[in-house]
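User: Please predict the structure of the protein below. I'd like the answer in structure-token form so I can feed it into my own downstream comparison script.

Assistant: Understood. Taking the following sequence of 315 residues as input:
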Amino acid sequence: MSPALSAGQLALVVNDDEPNSVAIADYYRQARNIPAANIVHVRIANRPHKLSAVEFATLKKQIDSQLSPEIQAVLMVWTAPYAVECNSITAAYTLGVDAGLCARSCSAGQPSAYFNAAHGLPYAQYKMRLSMLLPTESVAQARQLIERGVSAGFRLQEANAYYLTTGETARNSRAPFFPPAGRLPTKKLNIKRLRADELDGATDIMVYQTGMARVAKLDTLKFAPGALADHLTSYGGDLLGTGQMSSLRWLEAGATASYGSVSEPCNYWQKFPQPTVLLQHYLSGDTAIEAYWKSVAWPAQGIFIGEPLSTPYRR
């Protein structure tokens, strides 16, 4: 395995038109010791939820013009915009806009060359700069999120990974890929597979993957630093929408990174994080952004959010 991404390979994209973006980016720069040369400045007025392909092309050109060849991944410090047409902004940035998908959003997506990638830096090896959003709805919550990501690398701790098969049958399409229950002693990780609609009072959660339109009792849970959590549903990536539970709720509950789709994907498992692939790469020492990107076979509609450099299992 190649070493995980480092702070020197991550670009921080700041929206100078949003005070929270400026404040959170500065906090993240200091927390992760991001080089000054890696800070990218753009201006996006009025925080639109969605950009047109033309608007996005202009934004991407502005970002790319400020990047050095060493940059392997990009962290956009804002909540919105999070979509480009029917694509997520992270997929549009990393893979390009899949315009054909917007005519039939339930059709198969373009496959990602980075899915379950064994080794190699994403841009150097695959000509893909990974991307993630760091939400900015609350400066205080963003700081806590950043601190969780940073502290995840301090020591290996006892933790639990939960995989739930729920009563919402259509949202269980990735249950066949749940890893087997048991204990991984060298990682201090207990893997638990449950038939339930939610967890109640669970602690030391490192992974929580389920299928529900809304996940109950998040306020009763305690996540470990570096935790990954997501729910398979149609609009989790509609971050500021109200139709289904936003993936932001996972971060607010204490997770460090998450994922959701911004447009109707139907329930292809390939459009969501594949549980075994995600766990294997995170346990191997990949960062959260690498492990999450490697776990999605067709990521065009999915938004990656959180603290990208979290590495609780790096040796």
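That's the full token string. Helices lie at 19-32, 53-64, 89-95, 122-126, 139-151, 248-253, 275-283, 288-294.
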